[in-house]
Design brief:
The chain is 32% helix and 19% strand. The protein has 622 residues and is of the alpha/beta class. Helix 6 crosses helix 7. The radius of gyration is 26 Å and the shape is globular. Bound molecules: flavin mononucleotide (FMN).
């Protein structure tokens, strides 16, 4: 029970720690689940070091209690936090981050460690974790182990394990823990089977994110937990040739009360490929229509189930878990226990260790061969885990975000998506398919048939046109990076049609071949004829030497400087290659130096100012 000197609130993590005899709390700032997974693994491993842990979502906790955590003897708070956008925290860590930044809490006596999740190709690499680690110390807290930084562009799993292997000895020495116990594999969730007919259909989840039946009885407001089922009005091919496919999809949002602006993102919840779902059922010897629940064995956890339960295996594999991602090493560690063949087991164990040999095997067998979990089970034939345990181990299936390629001025009732269908052959002769685009590609409306539907919600972005349409804009969007700029141009055209003066607009677009993957060619040429845009086009493979948008920018440095330095232009980059964003940024810096006559430091400062005023924005993905 709580000690007298500790104040307890409703969202008290302190109370939970105390009532369960724990002293380690691992907070996560996570958008797509990696940080949450790492936090869970640390909390679980604590048992080995006599530091039984608890995972906690800062959004659900009274974080001011950090000032009192010292009242639990030898307690420790760990933070696994990701960085997004322009160095921003994740949604669930936002409030905590602001509190740390703007408040002056006394954190003396608090023991802490931070592990950051980021990606080196972004300019603000891991800036949230770096800031948090420094700020906690400033506020008086004691760092128990040095900051760890994970790079998702390389191998974030490896970074995490390497950090963790030194983190635990630091914890042991700080708290005088003598030796580690045996590694113990304990399941976090227990299986509850529901007999056929035991539960009425209305009580079994069929793909809802939170509320039962929310996909049948739709009620606004729509968001991540309550997506809107949008009808696909249009679904057509944009490429005119070549072996790749690019979809133009129009989603009906009428009646949803959802609004959007040009530059926003739409999140789409995909369904996993049914053939792959069937295959996993076979490999694990399960009947996919069996209904089950997974129940957290830690009754103090706020997360009762790993995903909505009760549900069928088919639903879990189709809607709730990621089955096409390459499994991380801790999953292989758990699966190793189900190998009946010693050689298979050895191989799985080896891949899950941090030794040079283990890493090399993981690299070749999983990473380079692009083996998802079904491929691993096929190629490690004696490994046959029960399906419920596999469902527990796999990460949650995440919605995919797309830059909306329309403007509400022209299309108030539909949201347009422009997406290349992801599909590739792997070295083992399999074909791996992108979950969402493959699924979307199969969902074409047909006359006389009910329109296919997809669960979506809209996410606001910072990617915005200038308030005044006469402000000039420069847009760099090769490939499907064109998407938000189609919306921007629709917006500009609407302003001009309404008689408002519009400023200059440059669009740098690139693709492989003019006659194959020049998407929206007719529309763009129409915009150009109407004076809404100047097109700058790079067709990389239409001549002997490769030409990319960066080559065109390089040619136009003087014009770039004139627009940015003298005409108050806004600059935008969008695309699926973060390296492109880095190259473009360097070219802009060069224009500022060479044409604007600034020094290197001044150019950097100039660009930073543009960024802080939202006159230089990037919307990039990997
Ligand atoms: N990492 C950074 O270090 N700095 C960034 O500014 C940054 N922005 C990102 C923006 C987007 C849209 C995405 C998808 C990732 C970004 N990342 C950035 C990388 C993520 O932080 C990294 O992938 C992390 O592992 C995600 O953790 P999570 O799964 O817990 O959300």
């Amino acid at each position: 029970q709580p000690a007298g000197n500790i104040q307890v609130t409703e969202n008290s993590f302190i109370k939970k720690l105390q009532s369960s005899g724990r002293r380690l709390v691992v907070f996560y700032g996570s958008q797509t689940g990696t940080g949450e997974e790492f936090a869970g693994r640390l909390a679980k491993e604590g048992v080995r070091y006599k530091m039984k842990g608890m995972v906690a979502d800062p959004e659900e906790c009274d974080m001011e209690e950090l000032t009192q955590l010292k009242n639990i003897e030898n307690s420790l708070a760990v933070f696994c936090v990701a960085t997004y956008g322009e160095g921003d925290p994740t949604d669930n860590a936002m409030e905590f981050f602001e509190w740390l930044k703007n408040g002056e809490p006394d954190l003396s006596g608090l023991n802490y460690a931070v592990f950051g999740l980021g990606n080196k190709t972004y300019e603000h690499y891991n800036s949230v974790a770096i800031y948090m680690d420094k700020r906690l110390e400033e506020l008086g807290a004691t760092r128990v182990h040095e900051l760890g930084l994970g790079d998702d562009d390389a191998n974030i799993e490896d970074d995490f394990i390497t950090w963790k292997e030194k983190f635990w000895p630091s914890v042991c020495s700080r708290f005088n823990i003598e030796s580690a116990g045996e590694e113990e594999l304990v399941r976090q969730f227990r299986l509850l089977r529901h007999a056929p007919g035991e539960l009425p259909d209305t009580q079994v989840f069929t793909g809802e994110m939170a509320r039962l039946n929310s996909l049948h009885t739709q009620r606004p407001p729509f968001d991540a937990k309550n997506p809107f089922l949008a009808e696909i009005k249009v679904n057509r091919e944009l490429h005119k040739g070549g072996d790749r496919s690019c979809l133009h999809v129009e989603l009906d949002i009428s009646g949803s009360k959802m609004r959007y602006e040009a530059g926003d993102h739409v999140a789409i919840y995909p369904t996993n490929d049914s053939a792959l779902v069937e295959r996993l059922g076979q490999l694990c010897g399960a009947s996919l229509d069996d209904v089950f629940s997974l129940i957290n064995t830690d009754t103090d956890s706020s997360k009762k189930h790993p995903f909505p339960c009760p549900t069928s295996y088919r639903t879990a594999l189709s809607h709730y878990v990621e089955i096409t991602a390459l499994p991380r090493t801790h999953i292989l560690r758990e699966l190793a226990e189900y190998c009946t063949d010693e050689e298979d087991k050895k191989k799985m164990l080896l891949m899950s260790t941090n030794s040079a040999e283990g890493k090399a095997l993981y690299q070749s067998f999983v990473a380079e061969a692009a083996r998802h979990v079904a491929a691993i089970l096929e190629d490690v034939p004696s490994c046959r885990p029960p399906l419920d345990h596999l469902c527990e181990l796999l990460p949650r299936l995440q919605p995919r975000y797309y830059s909306i390629s329309s403007s509400p001025k022209l299309h108030p009732e539909t949201v347009h998506v422009t997406a290349v269908v992801v599909q590739y052959s792997t070295p083992t002769g399999r074909v791996n398919k992108g979950v969402t685009t493959t699924w979307l590609a199969q969902r074409r409306p047909a006359p006389g048939a009910p329109a296919p539907k997809v669960p979506i919600y809209i996410r606001k972005s910072q990617f915005r046109l200038p308030l005044q349409p006469q402000t000039p804009i420069i847009m760099v969007g090769p490939g499907t990076g064109l998407a938000p700029f189609r919306g921007f141009l629709q917006e500009r055209a609407a302003a001009r049609a309404a008689g408002r003066p519009t400023g200059e607009a440059l669009l740098y677009f690139g693709c492989r071949h003019k006659d194959q993957d020049y998407i929206y060619q007719e529309e763009l040429e129409e915009f150009e004829r109407n004076g809404d845009v100047q097109l700058k086009l790079a067709f990389s493979r239409d001549q002997p030497e490769k030409v990319y948008v960066t080559h065109l920018l390089q040619r136009d440095l003087a014009q770039l400087w004139d627009l940015l330095g003298n005409q108050n232009a806004h600059f935008y980059i969008c695309g699926d290659a973060k390296n492109m964003a880095v190259d473009v940024r360097n070219l802009v810096l060069r224009a500022v130096r060479e044409c604007g006559g600034r020094s290197e430091a001044e150019a950097q400062q100039f660009l930073k100012r543009l960024e802080s005023m939202k006159k230089y924005s990037a919307d990039v993905w990997s």
